[in-house]
Amino acid sequence: xxxxxxxxxxxxxxxxxxxxxxxxxxxxxxxxxxxxxxxxxxxxxxxxxxxxxxxxxxxxxxxxxxxxxxxxxxxxxxxxxxxxxxxxxxxxxxxxxxxxxxxxxxxxxxxxxxxxxxxxxxxxxxxxxxxxxxxxxxxxxxxxxxxxxxxxxxxxxxxxxxxxxxxxxxxxxxxxxxxxxxxxxxxxxxxxxxxxxxxxxxxxxxxxxxxxxxxxxxxxxxxxxxxxxxxxxxxxxxxxxxxxxxxxxxxxxxxxxxxxxxxxxxxxxxxxxxxxxxxxxxxxxxxxxxxxxxxxxxxxxxxxxxxxxxxxxxxxxxxxxxxxxxxxxxxxxxxxxxxxxxxxxxxxxxxxxxxxxxxxxxxxxxxxxxx
Length: 371
Known about the structure:
By secondary structure, the protein is mostly beta strands. The protein has a single domain (2-361), classed as TolB, C-terminal domain (Neuraminidase, 6 Propeller), CATH 2.120.10. The chain contains 2 helices and 28 strands. The chain has a 5-stranded mixed beta sheet with strand order 2-1-28-27-26, with no helix packed on it. Strands 17, 18, 19, 20 and 21 form a 5-stranded antiparallel beta sheet that branches. A 4-stranded antiparallel beta sheet has the order 3-4-5-6, with no helix packed on it. The radius of gyration is 23 Å and the shape is globular.
């Protein structure tokens, strides 16, 4: 009997130790460290930049620094991967001022030779294109205006919250999420409005939901929908108030990726690369409503969980907007998720990074004490 008890004791201890190691491994695979790199003083950060107010869209120059659309100041600011502000600051035009005063939201890098902007006899393909809440779409070309984006197209009734570039049938297209109009506007390579066969229609979309953002990821166009307030053009925050759809570049619905659940006014979207822990290869969706980042299987849409800290707490970033992975230049690793936010009800701004940190979360295996 004593030998039998000893054997059972050892087996049970090994089983519990194995459970502890499994739990430790699971936590380690979902362990991320948040660091505020730069802000305007509203929240603690490594660097200060008064221009960074309500940081919204994030886009990387593949050969240089990140660009952040500052909705609160009507500017675009540039940073390296440690948060050091760069000397170039670009003003975004508004519907009433062609030189500044804009309200930029989404931003996208343009790698094509299309989407030329013109001013004062100069023209050039816009390297970065901005969407704004006043219906203005503008582009920045160093050949046209060194420190100002140039108006490209203005849609008076639109409230643009996001923008993306993709190719359809060999033609480069610009897609803009019109939150006010409950639609995706499409523009051709010369910024001329275009109609597509699919028209980005989801027949099962609730009537009070509207496109909050659009992102081109892995050959698809992902549209994040938020509930729209009844009398205005702001989103309604709340648990479960969010939908994400995937479309082809002609606007045909491919699948409903996510509905409700942990979504809460979703805006930022990115595909995690290899080396990003348990969520490598997943679609990451950032909630503006509660500041969490949710992971979904990129193919099936199955929920995978939320990004957590080394201590196991769900990461929350007040006023979270854009998310994007780095370009492996200027301390911007391709396995680091960078973000912009408008904390304190969009009164302030912050730009930061989220790094996968497995070693920080390893815990000792659990042993069951038996007498």
